[in-house]
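ok new one. same drill as before - structure tokens go in, u give me an amino acid for every spot. 325 of them this time. try not to just spam alanines like last time pls lmao
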């Protein structure tokens, strides 16, 4: 799985750690015996983490128990971020151990109320941990469209002023899986999490939302397109916008409505706006500045008006009109 994820060219891989099941669930929990068969030992995690690093993947560790977080804190330099699952969002002992991590702390906020999110964020910040990311989304095997509510992410982002990622759990065989996966990116959210599997559709834990290599490649491609289209929000015009918005060929230029004789003043009667083949240096919103100016040469009908064809003077600056009041 790590090799395929690296081949697709994804940014990061997230591992779900549990070292001590007795620290995570009651001894009589129906999954206790089964989960003991699944968990890796520290030595195995060391091999997995080393392999992911060799593949140049950022590593995120989702830790269910304090023991896992303690282990990750010993490997801090190898790990990009640690995550606390929504099931332990307000677990004081997990939060306390997370404050010792030197990188990013990710909080899973799916199925959590605003006051629960506040509690976790405030605890981390009060303990001088400010590098925080919120992960929105939850698994309802699979998650239905009506329950996703992406617009909620905008409100949570504004409320907490923190970066937010989207964890998508749409059914792997849903015909809209790829599109839904990248919808948050069209709103400017540039972190996407997906469950991954070597065998899409094979009935295992969390298989409902797990995609394979081909689907992930498509999602990555669409994600790039979505973020490119969203842009960076710079309000200055791009080169393409400036080329599109030039005066004359695109935006109407100010032209002579009729022949204008030398010495004649420009007015509402002899000026007009038309699209032209040539580009003009005079903007449309400078029209009223031209009114009243004299033509210093004959201007033919339909000719572009520019400052080289008119007598144009700025009014003298009268300093007596200014005060220090």
């Amino acid at each position: 799985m790590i090799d395929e994820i690296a081949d697709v060219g994804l940014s990061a891989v997230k591992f779900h750690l549990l070292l001590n099941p007795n620290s995570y669930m009651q001894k009589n929990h129906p999954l206790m015996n089964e989960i003991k068969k699944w968990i890796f030992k520290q030595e195995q995690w060391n091999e997995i983490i080393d392999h992911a690093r060799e593949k140049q993947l950022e590593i995120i560790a989702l830790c269910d128990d304090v023991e896992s977080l303690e282990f990750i804190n010993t490997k801090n330099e190898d790990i990009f971020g640690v995550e606390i699952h929504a099931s332990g969002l307000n677990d004081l002992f997990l939060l306390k151990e997370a404050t010792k991590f030197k990188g990013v702390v990710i909080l899973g906020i799916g199925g959590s109320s605003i006051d629960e999110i506040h509690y976790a964020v405030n605890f981390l910040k009060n303990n001088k941990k400010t590098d925080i990311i919120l992960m929105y989304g939850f698994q309802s095997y699979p998650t239905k469209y009506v329950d996703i509510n992406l617009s909620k992410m905008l409100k949570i982002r504004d409320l907490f002023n923190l970066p937010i990622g989207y964890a998508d759990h749409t059914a792997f065989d849903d015909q809209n899986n790829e599109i839904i996966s990248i919808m948050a990116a069209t709103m400017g959210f540039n972190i996407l999490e997906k469950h991954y599997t070597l065998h899409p559709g094979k009935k295992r834990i969390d298989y409902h939302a797990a995609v394979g290599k081909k689907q992930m490649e498509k999602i990555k491609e669409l994600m790039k397109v979505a973020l490119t289209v969203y842009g960076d929000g710079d309000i200055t015009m791009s080169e393409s916008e400036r080329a599109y918005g030039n005066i004359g060929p695109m935006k109407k230029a100010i032209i002579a409505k009729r022949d204008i004789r030398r010495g004649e003043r420009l007015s509402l009667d002899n000026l007009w706006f038309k699209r032209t083949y040539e580009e003009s240096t005079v903007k449309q919103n400078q029209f009223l500045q031209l009114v009243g100016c004299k033509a210093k040469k004959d201007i033919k009908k339909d000719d572009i008006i520019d400052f080289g064809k008119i007598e144009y003077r700025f009014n003298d600056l009268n300093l007596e009109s200014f005060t220090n009041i």
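Residues 12 and 58 are 4 Å apart (CA to CA). and btw The chain has a mean pLDDT of 93.
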